Automatic annotation (TrEMBL):
<comment type="similarity">
    <text>Belongs to the glycosyl hydrolase 16 family.</text>
</comment>
<dbReference type="InterPro" id="IPR000757">
    <property type="entry name" value="Beta-glucanase-like"/>
</dbReference>
<keyword id="KW-0378">Hydrolase</keyword>
<dbReference type="GO" id="GO:0004553">
    <property type="term" value="F:hydrolase activity, hydrolyzing O-glycosyl compounds"/>
</dbReference>
<feature type="region of interest" description="Disordered">
    <location>
        <begin position="306"/>
        <end position="328"/>
    </location>
</feature>
<feature type="domain" description="GH16">
    <location>
        <begin position="17"/>
        <end position="272"/>
    </location>
</feature>
<dbReference type="Pfam" id="PF26113">
    <property type="entry name" value="GH16_XgeA"/>
</dbReference>
<protein>
    <recommendedName>
        <fullName>GH16 domain-containing protein</fullName>
    </recommendedName>
</protein>
<dbReference type="InterPro" id="IPR050546">
    <property type="entry name" value="Glycosyl_Hydrlase_16"/>
</dbReference>
<dbReference type="InterPro" id="IPR013320">
    <property type="entry name" value="ConA-like_dom_sf"/>
</dbReference>
<feature type="signal peptide">
    <location>
        <begin position="1"/>
        <end position="20"/>
    </location>
</feature>
<keyword id="KW-0732">Signal</keyword>
<keyword id="KW-0326">Glycosidase</keyword>
<dbReference type="GO" id="GO:0009251">
    <property type="term" value="P:glucan catabolic process"/>
</dbReference>
Length: 389
């Protein structure tokens, strides 16, 4: 039994894009899911009617749960909200990323009048390091809206390879002729990409590929998850002279559910929702938020390269730089592996198979951690597994 999974490197022969094979870098799932995240408890930057609670409050009030390996994040659906807003959760990954293939496997997403759920990534010093909204919507919106938000100087070409519908093409938050902070948005045309339809389809996987060519987002409903990613993306945001890749730096993963506020509240009357006041509805109808929850199987982040655990030696000799680094990590990490942007997120065990201690490369510095009670750390590629000895 594997009780404390921190991160696992696996052979992913099947998971490949046209350009490259990918190796698992970080996995967020199960009982350790929340360990990789920090709970945001400030006031909502988007002015929502929400009271973001800390980790211990969320856990003690049942807003965060892990059942049978599935992660749940609820909003309070039992009490009339105080003037602070309805209790909810907003979490940010400790680890930050500068590229990668991100697979967000969800069973259920929050939905309903007054809600504004989002699954996104964002860099420091907003908007200078960019924002990528992978899953976002408000009230009873029909399908997902995928958006980039940037500083001035990032626009999307009129013609690009995507199945979604372009809403706006200037990613700059203050672009003339667009709503404030509208960014460059693309609407998903798949009915199961949001809300009740997504939930009734049993969820699926949001995939985001971020590399030097740009950012692509796909939605695969559960019955149509492919073994590799080859089809045209739902949204495609190419980099180049139109939009420098340097506008996207050190992104952390964010999951949140707010209510009303700058978007859901401002357009509340445009949906067939009860009453005329979003805030009034959210405050006094707790049971209306029983469907406003996330159910998450896993978030996985992959980087290009074949795993070092491959049995083929010929493969090892033709590996990429990333693989070479991870090979070093496996053999003697302490003496040779430097923690820098290129290996951000790499884990290694202090004494593989013997001690509980591990280290993770976090923004240029090794940060130590320990496996759960009764387990020891095992090095696996550039990643680790905490397991019973
Ligand atoms: C993530 O950050 C939070 C708060 O900064 C910290 O309490 C937690 O231990 C961190 N998690 C890991 C795995 O380092
Ligand atoms: C709150 O939501 C959960 C999950 O949907 C549900 O099981 C529960 O019955 C709800 N509670 C109330 C009081 O509506």
């Amino acid at each position: 039994m594997r009780a404390f999974v921190i991160a696992v490197a696996v052979l992913l022969g099947a998971l490949a894009t046209a350009e490259a094979q990918y190796t698992l870098q970080t996995e967020y799932s199960g009982n350790t899911f929340f360990n990789g995240f920090t709970f945001f408890t400030g006031s909502d930057p988007t002015h929502g009617f929400v009271d973001y609670v800390d980790a211990s409050t969320a856990s003690s009030q049942g807003l965060t749960q892990v059942r049978n390996g599935v992660v749940y994040i609820f909003a309070d659906n039992t009490t009339v909200a105080s003037s602070a807003g309805r209790r909810s959760v907003r979490i940010t990954s400790n680890q930050s990323y500068n590229s990668g293939l991100f697979l967000f496997d969800v069973n259920h997403v929050p939905f309903g009048c007054g809600t504004w759920p989002a699954l996104w990534t964002v860099g420091p010093n907003w908007p200078n390091s960019g924002e990528i909204d992978i899953f976002e919507g408000v009230n009873t919106q029909a399908t997902d809206l995928m958006t980039l938000h940037t500083q001035q100087g990032c626009t999307m070409p009129a013609s690009r390879s995507q199945t979604g519908t372009t809403v706006t093409s200037n990613c700059w938050i203050n672009a003339p002729g667009q709503s404030s902070n509208q960014g460059c948005g693309v609407t998903n045309t798949q009915p199961t990409s949001y809300g009740d339809n997504l939930n009734n389809a049993g969820g699926g996987v949001y995939a985001t590929l971020w590399n030097s060519n740009g950012i692509s987002i796909w939605w695969f409903q559960r019955s149509a998850i492919p073994s590799d990613i080859r089809r045209t993306p739902d949204a495609n945001f190419p980099f180049g002279s139109n939009c420098p890749s340097s506008f996207f730096v050190n992104h952390q993963i964010v999951v949140d559910l707010t209510f009303c506020g700058d978007w859901a509240g401002n357009v509340y009357s445009q949906f067939n929702c009860p009453g005329s006041s979003c805030q009034n509805y959210v405050q006094y109808n707790p049971s209306a938020f029983s469907d406003a929850y996330w159910s998450i199987n896993s978030f996985k982040v992959y980087q290009p390269g074949t795993p070092t655990t491959t049995t083929s030696t010929s493969k090892t000799t033709t590996t990429t730089k990333a693989t070479t680094t991870s090979t070093t990590a496996t053999s003697s990490p302490t003496s040779t592996l430097v923690c820098n942007a290129a290996n951000n997120g790499y884990y290694y065990c202090m004494n593989s198979g013997v001690s509980q201690a591990y280290e993770i490369c976090n923004n240029g510095a090794w940060v130590s951690g320990a496996c759960g009670p009764g387990t020891v750390c095992w090095t696996s590629g550039n990643s680790i597994v905490c397991n019973y000895p």
